[in-house]
Each structure stands twice: as C-alpha cells, then as structure tokens.
Amino acid sequence: MIHHHYQAYYQTLDLAAENDVAQLLFPGWRNSLEKPFLFLGDFHPCLFTNLLRSFLEDSDDSEEGQYDFINKPYQFAVAWRNASKNLMVKIEQIERGLRLMVPELNSRVRVLQGEFLERVAVKWVKYEGRKGNLRGEVEEALVGKMEEMTCAFLDANRIRRSVLSEIMGATNVYQAALFLEALSQFLVGFRNADLISEFERKRENNRV
Amino acid sequence: MITREGAEETKEIDDTSETLKCLTLCKRDYTKREQKASATRLMKARWELEGLIEEQLNRYEVHYNRTMVPVRLKDVAQLLMPNWASPHELTAFAWLGDWRPSAVLSLLHSLTHSAFPSPSSLSNSVGMERLLSQLINDIRIEEAVLDEEMAEIQSTCILHLRPSPTDYWAGGLTLESVRSEIKKINGVITKAHQLRFKALKLVVKKVLARTDAAEFLIAFMGIQELIHEITTQNRFTKGPVSVPVKALAPA
Predict the structure, then answer these.
(1) Would you call A126 an interface residue with chain B, using a CB distance cutoff of 8 Å?
(2) Is B165 exposed, middle or buried (0-12, 13-18, 19+ CB in 10 A)?
(3) Angstrom distance (rounded) from CA B244 to CA A112
(4) Which residues does the UniProt record annotate as the domain DOG1 (chain B) (predicted)?
(5) What are the tens digits of pLDDT across the range B150-174?
(6) Per-domain residue ranges for chain B?
C-alpha cells in the first residue's frame, strides 16, 4: 500500500515533468531543509539501499531488550535476524547498478548543459552579442534542451522507482514494512514544522 | 679679405646647415616624442585594461567568498537553488547553485571556434587548443569528484537523520544532526565555488591574451544575462506545474 503510494508519487512527478521539467528539478515547494538533500529533483536513490543496509547491520548488534515489543509483534523484532544471504546479494547487485547509473546521469546533465552553452556561444558570435534574432535562436535552443533534460529527470525517477520495487521484491513482508516505515518517518521528519522554523531562524555560528 | 669673407660665407652656410640639422633633429625628436607618447598611452591603456580585468576577477573572488559564508542554515538551500534565478536558468547551466566550471572552459572553446575575437591569434593556436582541452578534462574530473562527494552526503544522510531502529522513541530529526549534514553540504558548495573561480582565473590569466580576456569576460557576462532574461520572460514562467487528476487515477 505504502509502496504503491511511493510509486504513484514518482509517476506523478514524471507526468508533471512533461509539463515543465525545470520546476521539478528545482522544486520551489520543497522547504529549505529538504532542498540541500535533493538529487535531480528528489532524494538520492542510494538513500534507499543505505537504509536497507542499515537494518541489516543494526540487526547484528541490536539487543532484543531495546525493542518496542508492546506495539509490535515478534515477527518485526526478528525481521532482520538471519536475513537471507540472497538479500545481501541483491543489495550489492542494486548498489553496483547505481554506481554505474548515477555518475552516468551526472555526466549526462553536464553534457546537455555544455551543449546548450556551446550553441549559445555560436549564436553570440554570429550576432556579435547584439540582440536581434539572437534571443529567438537561444530560446529555441533552450526549449530543445529542456526536452532532453526531461528525459534525464525521467531516468532519475525511473532509477528511484526501480530501486524501491527491487527492494520490495527482495524483502519479506515484515522487512518491507519496517523499511517503508523508516523511510516514511525519515521523509516526514523533513516536514516537521517546529524543526523547520527553528532551522530557518538558526544562525550558523561556526562559519566555514 | 677673401679668405675672411669666404670664411664668413662658410660660416653662414655652416650656420644654415646647422639650423637645418637642428630642425631635422627637432622634428625627429618631435616624432619620437609623439611615438613615445602614444606608446605610453598604449602601455597605459594596457595597464588600465589589466587593472580592469584584475578588478573584475577580484569582484568574482569577493562574490564567491561572500556567498561562501552562509549566515543561517537555510541559506545553504538558497545557495543551491537561489531565488534570483529561474528554474529554467538553473536547469540550463547550474551546477551546485551556480555556473558549471567546465562549462566556462567549453564556452571559451566554442567562442574561439566561432572565430572570436581575433581568429588569427586564437583559433589557429594549436598550443592553446591543447592546453584548453587539457584544462577542460582536469576541471571535469574535479567536478565529478565533487558530484561524488555530494552524492555520498545525500545518500548517507538517512543514516544520520532517522531515529535508530533499536531506539524507537529517540525521536526523529534533530536540529543538531541536520546541522552537521548541512555543514558537510556547505563544504561541498564552498569547494564548488573555489573550482568556479579557478576555472575563470585559468581562462583569463593563462589561456587568453589581455584583450581577448576582456572580450571573453564581456561575452561570459552577456550570455548569462541573456539566459536570465529569456528564462524570466512569459514563455518560461508557466506558473505552478499541475497534473490532470484523470491522469492520476490508477491504471
């Protein structure tokens, strides 16, 4: 159910991107707490695998006594104990994929921006920096690049979506529930109104 | 007598030629002085140009040093997605909140290829071409390193910013934990700014001659302004994005 919600959320982003990708890459509706953590418009896909890993690593040294048994059945408490070897293999596989895909996306954006500036430079020389038709031609170039940027954004979302569904596929129902709970808690944390207002007021004393 | 007269005549002639000589000398002096003066003017203009370029570079340096020091935590978000720029502008050329360092060098590359500003001195220079592509390569690598650093922070932040699964009641996000993450991100932005300035300095000081550097700075500013103008006009300010409700219905 929650998984469906996430999938629907990313599909919505995809649809909106076809309308105007720039507003999704630099979303004004995100608060200043969230913005620094966004990668191509949303959270980084590696965040999902890191969360999953943290469950597996925590389970090694966690004490049963610390767990909240009152509200949760025993199955949740032991969900990560003796997690199958397959799950570890699966995580590594997903991570390997991400290590290839993420830098590839970064360089794709770089190439797209480079191509755009190159075209602008050519026009700039052609019209000797005088306005004239320069504006129109640069505009055309920009519209064209936005379309290609949309593809890059859709790919970033596709990666996020597929990492999520692969994790859902690799975990059992208790593990998946705990995973989604933690993910949602994490995301909701960014929307904590008290924290945001404190955050926005807070001065950074130790300057860099 | 004759000898005396002759001597006087000779003297007169001597005087005349002396005067002539003097005149030519004076004239040569004058021309020389003129040349010297204009050379001085040229030198002065050169110094002035150098001074102006230096000033412009300093301005960039101050700009990046100033923006590097965020006063409040939320300023980091402002650095990454500044309000003054439209989303399209940022999409078109921003990297970690401002122009991409490697793009400056590529810009120079394509400007020189489109015969700017003096084709003879620039585009034919094989040495410069080689130097430029070497620099583009180096800067790209440094960019990729910073991309990696940023990705590392963004993807491990969940480990620091969520309640521990074994300590369920410890509460969610705390200001302290956020602060340390934001600080790391700010560190990356600082390095990005330094890289930007480095790229610009390389172009202006190493690659280009003075007059070309001036032309380049003008084009660099002009192009940024142009893109800003274009992206803030009606066509690109579409208002909030929306998705038709029908499209959201489960398939």
Answers:
(1) yes
(2) buried
(3) 29
(4) 17-237
(5) 999 988 888 887 765 544 444 556 7
(6) 67-248
